[in-house]
Amino acid sequence: MKLREFMAGLARKAGRHLNTQPLGMRNREPLVSFTFDDIADSAARHGAAILDAHGIKGTFYVAAGLLGTRDEFWNLATADDIRRLNAAGHEIGCHTHDHRKVDELSAAELAAQCDANHAALTAICGPIDLPNFAYPFGRQSLPRKRDLQRRFTSCRSVYEGLNAGRIDRAMLRVTELYDRTLTADKLARTLDAAAAQNGWVIFYTHDVADNPSWIGASPRLMTEVIEAVEARGFPCVTVREALARIGLPEA
Ligand SMILES: [Zn+2]
């Protein structure tokens, strides 16, 4: 292995496992968030409609540079979709503008990507703050994680796990909301763990379609998950609201 690859691997491991922004959770009850990345047009339309039907607000991590384009597995949402999501009270979160992997960027390039995304989303939605970030492709490194945690209240990973106890705000854990991986068994175990540990479950997905991509959810799965969460009485809130309930340290 080349030294450079070895060092990149170390930077990823360190970013994943070192808790660089610890926060002791002080929420009164288990919490659940529904999050979407990129954003596929089907997530902005069908996904949001399912949330709306249940009175739930989601968090949509937008890479504004992708809007209106075609991805391998789906069409991306348009600016109008994003404006509508924001107006409806869903949270708009930050991805990199061009969906660049943060570990491949310099600190300056990463800042420029975040600035560009913020400018584009301000042009779409009007003045908007974007306190919460998600790592595109889940890719990260310790130095870029440290850069991002200075700018954002939270950064969401794609690493599986329940957020409970002393969490890392700069590396929030997720549960895949994918038809391919979220079995009824896994869902029940995840919600059991959230109840036992007073945890925060962050579901994440991409497209929402009857035949979803390998990293997407069907409307049926989304509905089943929401009903299972509602049956437990866990509040479903945006990432922003969850962090408020968990108790951010005084600024
Ligand atoms: Zn993404």
TrEMBL record:
It comes from the Bacteria. Pfam families: Polysacc_deac_1. CDD domains: CE4_GLA_like_6s (cd10967). GO terms for biological process: carbohydrate metabolic process. Coiled coil: none annotated. Residues 30-251 form the NodB homology domain. PANTHER family: CHITOOLIGOSACCHARIDE DEACETYLASE, PTHR34216. This is Chitooligosaccharide deacetylase. The lineage of its organism: Bacteria, Pseudomonadati, Pseudomonadota, Alphaproteobacteria, Hyphomicrobiales.
